[in-house]
Amino acid sequence: MSNLLTASIGRKLLMSVSGLFLILFLFVHLILNSFLLLDGCMGFETGQLFNAGVHFMGTNPLIKIIEPTLALGFVVHIVYSLILTVQNMKARGPQAYASGKKTTGVEWASLNMLPLGIAILAFLIVHIFNFYMKMKGYIAWEGGEVEFPFFGSMATGENAYALVNETFKSLPLVLLYVVGSVALAFHLAHGFWSSFQTIGWNNPIWMPRLRVISNVVAIILGGGFTVIALAQHLFF
Amino acid sequence: MEKIINLTLKVWRQNGSKAKGRFETYKVNNVSTDSSFLEMMDMLNEQLVSEDKVPVAFDHDCREGICGTCSLYINGRPHGPDDDVTTCQLHMRKFTDGQTITIEPWRSTAFPVIYDLMVDRRAFDKIISAGGYVSVNTGGVPDANAIPIAKADADESMDSASCIGCGACVAACKNGSAMLFVSAKVSQLAMLPQGRIEASRRAKAMVAKMDELGFGNCTNTGACEVECPKNISLSNIARLNREFLYAKFQD
Question: Chain A to chain B, count of Cβ pairs less than 8 Å apart?
Fold first, then answer.
């Protein structure tokens, strides 16, 4: 294990593992978001399912431990991306090719991971101010108390659904969410399979499989968040 | 069918590693489409010599695509517009009459320009010296059935061994990474029983040397695989990562 993190592959391992951890978080996030649309088909009143989900995430002791871990995951992923990018620019040298780069068949996303990441970070900051800061009580917000079913009995909590519903009435904001989600989809289309390549879990047989899985993950997450934001704006 | 074409060349000229480089434009006429790119460069140099000018310096040796000496970044691609060939195997039929061809050296901090189009690729030799070998004499050629090796492994090892160390992977990489080269050299030995024994030590030593020499970090864009004249597969990089991480976790 000695000086693993001073080696290029060690630093890339950190990018890879933190990236996969963040993808795991995104899946949990998407499941919670899907509650915004599922009240009707599950037989609940509008907003109950999501409010129960938010209540669960807000009160569960496990989440209290995972939250700082998640923040650490973001910090590691962002800090190391910057360190690696600076090293790569240095390795590449200041002199660009006058005749450009005409290599064909290279994924567009793979060449633009940093810009895509910056776009996602910008979106994330807006997103945190829109919801996280309010739900955690850092920014004042009037949602009122509501009652919802919670594991067989009834519980009361803040009406987080109203906050989401209110926020997504703004068309520019919904469009910003769509742009953020699409940037995320492209980031993951390369990032997912690339992280497995970095861990070393790849060979000529798994390469095409991982690329397909990567695209599926990107479409589920990017597409999922897009559809939920648009549906909230249009139908709720 | 042989055709005769006239070309305009924009060539990078640089009088030594410390000097400031610039592009010079030259006309080369009556080039046969049957000739190779380097033969066209020879025509240019003969022309320059006859005009009492300094000929363009460029690396070349075997001129049959097996030594890895030739380089050149031609019209936006290492080894030019053809796929899976080195510059010396590139034919002039890939170009059209009146075309302007831009010729640059490999660009990478680890490959500094020596003169004009020649770059110093000794960094690759240093990586090989760091561990790209089997450190005991394995004797003469044994009977083919003495050490059984699966056909698939033998084939993959052979494919990795076809790397000629030309440096096109580094030249094509947006990160100036040498991972395709290092991974091919680690893989060709790691897949055979004689090389397997030192696989961990080799992976650690070669990666450490690669980092020390200032090559970049791989982000798996795959540009190297596309531009490699020998079709070295990107899955070698996964194998190198695997060997390296396994070795580090053993420590």
Answer: 150
